[in-house]
Amino acid sequence: MNVATQAIRLTVLGRVQGVGFRPTVYRLAHEMDLAGTVCNTSKGVIIELEGPPETLRKFQDDFEGAMPSLALITALEVEEAKVQGLRDFVILPSESGGSSRALIPFDVATCSDCLEEFANPKDRRYHYPFINCTLCGPRYTIIESVPYDRPQTSMKVFPMCSRCQSEYEDPTDRRYHAQPNACPDCGPKLWLVDAEGEPIDGEPIEQARDLLRQGKVLALRGLGGFHLAVNAENEDAVLLLRQRKRRGPKPFAVMTADRDGLAHFARISNAEWDLLESVRRPIVLVDKRQPFELAEALAPGNPRVGVILPYTPIHLSLIEGFRALVMTSGNLAEEPIAKDNDEALKRLAGLADAFLLHDRDILMSCDDSVAFVDPGGAPAFVRRSRGWAPDPLSLPGAPDGILAVGAEMKNTFCLTRDGQAFLSQHVGDLENLETFEHFERCLEHMRKLLGVEIRAVACDLHPDYMATRFAESLKGLQPIRIQHHHAHMVSAMVENGLEGDAIGLCLDGTGFGSDGSIWGGEILCGSAQAFRRVARLQPFRLPGGDAAVRQPWRSLLGVWLSELDEEAALQRLSSLGELDPKKVRAVAQACLHGVNAPWTSSLGRLFDAVSAQLSICTQVLYDGQAAVELEAAATGQNAADLPSLTLDRHADLWQLSPHALLEALLEKKQAGVAIGPLAAGFHRSVVQGFVEACCVFRQEGGPAQVVFSGGCFMNRLLDAQLAEALQSEGFVVYRQRAVPANDGGLCLGQAAIAAAQISTRGQKG
Ligand code: ZN
Ligand code: ZN
Ligand code: FE
User: Fold this and answer.
1) Rounded to the nearest 10 degrees, what angle do helices 552-561 and 566-573 cross at?
2) Count H helices, E strands: the chain?
3) Does one domain contain both 221 and 112?
4) Rounded to the nearest whole angstrom, what is the distance from the C-alpha of residue 417 to the centroid of ligand 3?
5) CA 567, CA 576: separation in Å to the nearest integer?
6) How far apart are CA 98 and CA 24, in angstroms?
């Protein structure tokens, strides 16, 4: 019988390597009795098929729906091809060399099939700490170069045993081309050493658990780097870790085995559980349950606690028998996370009592992501890192090779290719040298993986940011300098795909303004092309500059001094008992003479000031503490009746003044009104002020779409109340949910603005 035969070629781009894509194609082709080939190439995955036209059509119809859960198709091209008379369907070896345009997969938590084997005493991988398959295991952190194949990963030093090899080669096996495939016979091994690096005898996990039970600090090498762990129920152990890590009261995240374990110390919604349980496995900030059945020292003064579920087999074994373990990055203070064995033994000396090590090298370290669920049920990031890096975001029209270096704190950077922005993992605070060197390594690694040359560089306007200096050091490139809050606003616009102008509500800690002062309570209007400043918080001086970030009473003093004379201002602070009046007076004097007292319109600093005025927090021991505690005080409280921020015209700007509000706050506090309602009232008054400003601006012809960005939107109360109030005034509100609203999402906006400038320049030229 003569069956009409046709041939087609499909070119597929996206996350199609290392996720079980080719075996799925193979199975589908076999089921349909189609002949052909599938191959990873530098142009993407190429599928060639031969068979009856109606079967080929069916293949195309079914193809996307049949893809494995981790695959993501971003572009699919189908063309007619020449019939070659093929008889079978085969998977061809990957073409190496050249740059691969396939997306690099992210690291994936252990899947349910692997978990089953892991728990089965009859399975050859029973309790094997490195169990993985095509659908789970390390990816981004073990890749050296592309295409993603075993010889280009840190697994290259482990030749597979015959059983592993046959799984790897069998397209019907769930470990077909699972690059990190391994077993106890041929794969990586785990061992335990003491603080001096001397081996500890016995089964390493059991010994490690023993040490944890004794209240010791364990350093363990995980997926993206080292963690430090202690028993989360042991108050002394938590305090010991805190002290050794020199961390102040900054909250620790905890790992717990399952939902039952979690129920002992946290209250969670289904949306929060879904996020916790997702294959990307972030730390999720959730409400503590009272009484809190873990150590109080975990997150003192904080109504929330960061929780994470085990995401590697090592975690699964280690957590057995514990309600929860503290899992914090293996580093001292703000240094980058350690990833190599020798490095950890050196850098974490004095921090850990023992080290659980392994020999599957981590080529790129990657911190845990941190997320929360907003009151509307949508996940939002505090930190976008492991599990998401290096997933790109769409940036249509952007030329290849734009590097956006990001901000100074919570740094991430991005590179553009194929109309997408590839965001790095969390790099950290660039103010220390170790982190800056980490930035350079991450950048070079990402650049190599993407196969792009840097053709343009975008940076912050701040002249002293390390990232800015780095941008200036790139030979032959003129840095495109971008105002901090413009980048914030555009970052939010990009992820929401907004066209035209938007109002940018940029509520932030600090960002260098176009006028050289510190901005942070801004209403901007514009797009990636341009922006203008519409309104601001009334500026005040920041006595001591950066010192004010750690000592909120300084911000408070600055706010009062911008309105009142010295005596009256000092009198407003006199109720804050713990301050030394002599010191406060000296600081006030310096401020009035303009010595190290920059002007700022930062809303973050106003939150600090109010936190101090309400005696909630006068001394900050970790980033954002004053604002976090102010939000905590306000949560669930009925707002006291307070005046809103006052809106006035100031030259060409609208200006929001906090003085009437602060006077009323102080008066009510002195009259004995409780702190909670005052904190809640303050939130409401800030919301009213900014909403009024948006309304006034809309009457002047401003747009009705509003984007939220800036560090203040880590405050869930502020975020939710602002959104609700603006929506009830008829505004359409867009939030940052794909990248953090804090400086961790800044590079996306920088890249988009740079792309817009380059295209304008191109049109002019
Ligand atoms: Zn698996
Ligand atoms: Zn093996
Ligand atoms: Fe910022």
Assistant:
1) 150
2) 23, 31
3) no
4) 25
5) 15
6) 25
If asked whether residues 719 and 619 sit together in one domain, one would say: yes
Domain co-membership, 255 together with 122: no
Q: With the C-alpha atoms ordered 687, 693, 698, 703, is the resulting torsion angle positive or negative?
A: negative
Cα distances from 142 to residues 138, 221, 367, 521, in angstroms, run 6, 13, 14, 42
Q: What is the pLDDT of residue 98?
A: 53
Cβ-in-10-Å burial (0-12, 13-18, 19+) of 1 comes to exposed
- Residue 3 pLDDT: 62
User: How far, in Å, CA of 504 to CA of 709, rounded?
Assistant: 7
Ligand nearest to the Cα of 116, by number: 1
Residues 584 and 674 both lie in one domain: yes
Alpha-carbon gap, residue 528 to 755, rounded angstroms: 8
Centroid of ligand 3 to alpha carbon of 35 (angstroms): 55
Determine the pLDDT at residue 431: 87
Quote the ligand 1 centre to 231 CA distance (angstroms). 28
Which candidate, 748, 729, 726, places its Cα nearest to that of 739?
748
pLDDT of residue 439: 97
Backbone angles phi, psi at 158, to 5 degrees: -115, 90
**Residue 615 and residue 473 share a domain:** no
- State pLDDT tens for residues 389-445: 999 999 999 999 999 999 999 999 999 999 999 999 999 999 889 999 999 999 999
Among 498, 497, 488, smallest CA distance to 703 is for 498
Following DSSP, what letter does each residue of 37-56 receive, concatenated? EEEEETTEEEEEEEE-HHHH
Where do runs of H (alpha helix) occur along 135-256? 162-169, 204-213, 235-245
**Nearest ligand to the CA atom of 168:** 2
Protein residues within 5 Å, CB atom, of ion ligand 2: 161, 164, 183, 185-186
What pLDDT shows up at residue 576? 86
Q: How many domains does the chain have?
A: 5
Q: Which residues of the chain have pLDDT under 70?
A: 1-3, 96-100, 764-765
139 C-alpha vs ligand 1 centroid, how far in Å?
Answer: 12
Structure pTM? Answer: 0.95
What are the tokens at 96? Answer: 């190496």
Q: Which contacts of 555-559 are long-range, i.e. CB under 8 A and separated by 24 or more positions?
A: 555/605, 555/606, 555/608, 555/609, 555/612, 556/608, 556/609, 556/610, 556/612, 556/613, 557/584, 557/587, 557/588, 557/591, 558/591, 558/597, 558/600, 558/605, 558/609, 559/606, 559/609, 559/658, 559/659, 559/662
Domain extent, residue 279, equals 190-358
